[in-house]
Automatic annotation (TrEMBL):
<dbReference type="Pfam" id="PF01590">
    <property type="entry name" value="GAF"/>
</dbReference>
<dbReference type="Pfam" id="PF02954">
    <property type="entry name" value="HTH_8"/>
</dbReference>
<dbReference type="InterPro" id="IPR002197">
    <property type="entry name" value="HTH_Fis"/>
</dbReference>
<keyword id="KW-0547">Nucleotide-binding</keyword>
<protein>
    <submittedName>
        <fullName>Nitric oxide reductase transcriptional regulator NorR</fullName>
    </submittedName>
</protein>
<dbReference type="InterPro" id="IPR029016">
    <property type="entry name" value="GAF-like_dom_sf"/>
</dbReference>
<dbReference type="Pfam" id="PF25601">
    <property type="entry name" value="AAA_lid_14"/>
</dbReference>
<keyword id="KW-0804">Transcription</keyword>
<dbReference type="InterPro" id="IPR003593">
    <property type="entry name" value="AAA+_ATPase"/>
</dbReference>
<feature type="domain" description="Sigma-54 factor interaction">
    <location>
        <begin position="187"/>
        <end position="416"/>
    </location>
</feature>
<dbReference type="InterPro" id="IPR002078">
    <property type="entry name" value="Sigma_54_int"/>
</dbReference>
<dbReference type="Pfam" id="PF00158">
    <property type="entry name" value="Sigma54_activat"/>
</dbReference>
<dbReference type="InterPro" id="IPR025662">
    <property type="entry name" value="Sigma_54_int_dom_ATP-bd_1"/>
</dbReference>
<dbReference type="InterPro" id="IPR009057">
    <property type="entry name" value="Homeodomain-like_sf"/>
</dbReference>
<keyword id="KW-0805">Transcription regulation</keyword>
<dbReference type="InterPro" id="IPR058031">
    <property type="entry name" value="AAA_lid_NorR"/>
</dbReference>
<keyword id="KW-0067">ATP-binding</keyword>
Amino acid sequence: MSLSITSLANIAIDLQNGITHQDRFARLIRTLRQLLGSDATALLRYEARQFRPLAIDGLAEDVLGRRFALDAHPRLEAIARAGDVVRFPAESELPDPYDGLIPHHSDLKVHACLGLPLFADQNLIGALTVDGMDPAQFDHFSDEELRLISVLAAGALNNALLMEQLENQTPAANAAPATGKTGGTEMVGLSAGIEQLKKEIEIVAGSDLNVLITGETGVGKELVARAIHSGSARAANPLVYLNCAALPESVAESELFGHVKGAFTGAIHHRIGKFEMADNGTLFLDEIGELPLTLQAKLLRVLQYGDIQRVGDDNSQRVNVRVLAATNRDLKQQVLAGQFRSDLFHRLSVFPVHVPPLRERGDDITLLAGFFCEQSRVKMGLKQVVLSDGARDLLRRYDWPGNIRELEHAIYRAIVLARAGHPEGELLLQPQHFQLADAELKSLPTAAKTHPLVDNLRTATDDFQRQIIIQALDANGGNWAATARQLQLDVANLHRLAKRLGVK
């Protein structure tokens, strides 16, 4: 059946009724999926030669966290280049980015695929993708009907982008329009905590205030610093990084302020310090709580007067540097304990920014898992990396004491384990591929506890054996004979047990 005027009018009405841009986009693709009878639809934003999903329907939740680079996805590149409706033939050899990512059809390839590029003033701003499992699913819709849909969607997306631009309009944004999210500063997530963090970054980036970034290890404090710098009027100038925890006290002053030739044994050349490198830019001092007290006093002087003095030099010079500092410590407690200067603390924390731990970010865990799956897939040259329902559930239940860094490493390890048995490069990550400590798992939802006790016992026993085998294999470099000896099992019995548990 063809699209009626009424159905197109309903799309337009839906786009007006949404309270937020996200709500309008969700209504749009939900309505489109129903009208076109598709198995999956997605609205993608185009930026920096990649497509970023804004709303999905009928696709795995982690797709929202994936970033589809044109260089790695020839179908999406064809849509970006087309300028009009794209219909991919069922026998197309171009891999579909959503293969394995449509729930209930994860073992099947997408057969019907439409791409509708979205334009504003002849500039590509996004795309709609419509996918189905039946090769003839969309044959009865004309290109003209599909073009009308793309015009409606493009108008809605362009309005959202213009509103976003107006909301974020600051002198800094106008001075450096080419920075922003394309420089590796995008924060993946839609939770309330991460949305609040993004707002705080937007507020403080346009000022020239010093910022203290707090949060646990692995939450992404350096990413926050890069985002603040990218959104500032200093974005065209250097962002210089210094890890205070890695500085021996004997060289810390030279690292910060530089030295002149002959200042000390081994000083055979003049050397500029991090402050001079960051002149007119930003200096990011990571793990600021580790800075020795003697250097804290000298850092305070720079923040107060803008003067630095190289080691061994009688002359001082002025620098114009914005300081961003980060710590996973409680600096207030360190001040009370006499381990951190109170005056420096107040100078640095003019605008404190707290980065929430991953365990407080809810569904962001799934989005980040999808982000790292796609990143690893491209880096490792794999055809497909898909998370099973069980794997997604496990990742949500885990407490992530190491936060985002631990999640990234867990995804990478799981891919390495899964790839060992799939040289063709189409991977489905299962719970057994993740080596996560049981002590850090949250309780199962109530519904999952209603199974008979015997089932729970069998599942728990299998999970325990699976983890032990995987850990032993990892410790023995994948050598099955050595693993059998460590576990005091006959190697043939170990192979049979591993096969039953899904390890092999």
